[in-house]
Specification:
Layout (H helix, E strand, L loop, with lengths): L1 H39 L26 H5 L2 H45 L1
């Protein structure tokens, strides 16, 4: 029965790995949502009361004295997007690893059951 306890622990570890992967993917998704909010929503600079259009439009892009351009700059947006890449990459790897481990354990258990049934 030691192999049964090992199998249960192996599957639990695989599910935990999947969970960590899903958590990191969810964090990356939240960062992508925050990037979209920063990119597509209109905003208001701190010093001014007038509303600026979203950065997705190019209305304020070529106006060098605009406070709108200074308030929400591209490096900040790209930092949010770039910061999500490691979370998405590691989350994908962990989720895939956990899924493959779990499926391998299921396959091995099924093969063992079929071998015992035919013997």
């Amino acid at each position: 029965m030691r192999s049964l306890s090992y199998d249960i622990e192996f599957r639990a570890r695989a599910r935990r790995t999947q969970g960590w992967g899903l958590g990191l993917l969810a964090l990356a998704g939240l960062m992508w949502i925050w990037f979209a909010v920063l990119l597509f929503t209109p905003y208001e600079p701190e010093e001014s009361s007038r509303e600026c259009v979203s950065r997705f439009t190019s209305d304020n892009l070529h106006n060098s004295d605009s406070r709108c351009v200074d308030e929400r700059d591209w490096p900040e947006l790209l930092a949010v997007l770039g910061g999500s890449v490691p979370f998405a990459l590691v989350g994908s790897i962990l989720y895939t690893s956990g899924s493959v481990s779990h499926r391998m354990a299921e396959h091995l258990a099924e093969v063992t059951r079929l071998n015992e049934a035919s013997a």
